[in-house]
Task: structure prediction
Amino acid sequence: MATSYRVGIVGCGSIAQRHTKAYQSVPGFHLAAATEPNTETSRAFQETFAIPKMYADPIEMLQKESLDVVSICTWHGLHAPQTLMAAEHGARAVLCEKPMAVSLDEADQMIAACQASGTKLAIGHQRRFYPGWTEARRLISEGAVGKPTMVTGYVVDGLLNTGSHVIDGMRYVLGDPQPEWVMGAVERKTNRWERDVPIEDCCLGLTNFAGGAQALLQVDLTAYSSADHFTVQGSEGLLMVAPDSLRLISPDNSNGETLPTLWDTHTQSAAGSVGFESYFHIAYTAQAQGLRAWLDGEAGYRSEGTQTRHSVEIMMALYQSVREGEVMRLPLEEGAYPLSAMVAENKLPLRYPEKYDIRDPQRRTWIHREAYDRMRADGLSHPEIMATLFNK
Ligand SMILES: NC(=O)c1ccc[n+]([C@@H]2O[C@H](COP(=O)([O-])OP(=O)(O)OC[C@H]3O[C@@H](n4cnc5c(N)ncnc54)[C@H](O)[C@@H]3O)[C@@H](O)[C@H]2O)c1
Result:
């Protein structure tokens, strides 16, 4: 057993900083190298985190560094090819950011490549390490809400982006049930992209799970959004789930009872005192600890690629349901990205063809950001805001 796992980071942007801080907080990891094509970003990242060796090309890093762990922190379209690359070069574990992939075929290729090379494939759904979510899972399994019937969530900024966290979280608190069917609705009147992937203006998805529980997710239909909170309704109660707290409304507690959830003290002290978004940082630390335990030989990991594949299938089935105009019964046969297919088939005609990317600073400069944020704060949804901006 290695006493210290050699870690390499691929892509040194914003989320890479969270991965790096977490590895540096947890004993048993050694940050060996990182790869970043932007020279200014590369220099700043090396300086901030004292990374011994920087590369511009991930293959060169993988060939030279004998890495145990590779963290993939690039945009969505690179997750599959770079996971395959890391597996081929003998990484013992890959921690790949969400969304796992932009199609079911890609998710399957990632799983197959990692199984062939014996690489442990973890996906960056760090919210599975929130104590509130984990305690909710335990309470629901013990019948705190009776028979779970409906989980409800609201997000903005895209299904694949923020939506992937909430779909994953809804399954997690329900005990990771098998999805059985999905029905979706999608609107795409503007040429909207997110980190180089075409996405919808708004969508809605209903998923039915084995055992009868359902999940309803609204994306960009409301100004309210949270990738951290949702509610679980059951035959005998309602549980409001948050990262660090739970509130249960039941026949015995009709005013609602706040239930305690505590961070594991080892995780908390490893993460240390951070001045910003502390529970987010602590979740990354817990994620790194979980990964180390898995590498050390602990059975299973709560955000394995094989688990996240279900979330990818749900998202792709939502789109495919719109494409085919029917309920999508799983397993899903379509392996490609159905939203791109619908665009190519002109099933989602644009009213406003100008392309913009909500996460690429180069391409979103044309949006009047302040006006956009003001309208969102006033309670307008993404489609309403875009219609207002375009019609000015
Ligand atoms: N888990 C979470 O809560 C969470 C939060 C934010 C972002 N993310 C995910 O993390 C990923 C990265 O998002 P981000 O906001 O950090 O993006 P970012 O733009 O800040 O960083 C991406 C970096 O990758 C670099 N890069 C581009 N091509 C590369 C290549 N071929 N090889 C290596 N590096 C390359 C870019 O130069 C950039 O520095 C996305 O998939 C996003 O969905 C997850």
Q: What stands out?
A: The first strand starts at residue 5 and ends at 10. The chain is about 40% helix and 25% strand.
